[in-house]
Design brief:
Strand order of the largest sheet: 5-4-7-6
Distance between the termini: 22 Å
Strand content: 25-35%
Helix content: 10-25%
Structural class: alpha+beta
Largest sheet: 4 strands, antiparallel
Length: 150
């Protein structure tokens, strides 16, 4: 049984003549073993962000000056959660409704590792299973729902 995380394989470098590790899904390669605690542990996620007037930058591609309260943003987010639970497509909702520029990609943020996102966002994403959606997550950017995709 392999001691490598899912998606990782050990290969031999033709150039350097030594072993390295490769993840076909993320197209990452590293000389270091990608085990627990290694910096190669990454997740992929999409999110839907609703900003409010106390967000660190209360404007977006949709709205130049966001005036809603945090509670109003949470109410809006709860409505999106209900729609998704009822069968709505996460990416389609994010594309139309997210206040993040990732909306153009259906909310997809790509792969990221620890230390690259705001702490509450990172902790929520790493705690999810693949294809699991969070409840509301509050960060300095606003309120989010997160779908872990990888």
């Amino acid at each position: 049984m392999s001691d490598l995380p899912d998606g990782w394989v050990k290969k031999m470098s033709k150039t350097h003549g030594k072993e390295y590790y490769y993840n076909a899904e993320t197209q990452e390669s590293t000389w270091e073993h990608p085990g627990p605690g290694s910096r190669t542990n990454k997740v992929r996620a999409s999110h839907l962000l609703v900003k409010h007037r106390d967000s660190r930058r209360p404007s977006s591609w949709k709205e130049a000056n966001i005036t809603r309260s945090r509670d109003e943003a949470l109410d809006i987010l709860d409505g999106f959660i209900k729609q998704i639970d009822g069968g709505a497509n996460f990416a389609e909702l994010a594309q139309v409704n997210s206040d993040c520029s990732s909306a153009k990609n259906g909310g997809d943020l790509g792969f990221f590792g620890r230390g690259q996102m705001q702490k509450p966002f990172e902790e929520a994403t790493f705690a999810l299973q693949v294809n699991e959606m969070s409840g509301p997550v509050i960060t300095d950017s606003g309120v989010h729902i997160i779908l872990r995709t990888g």
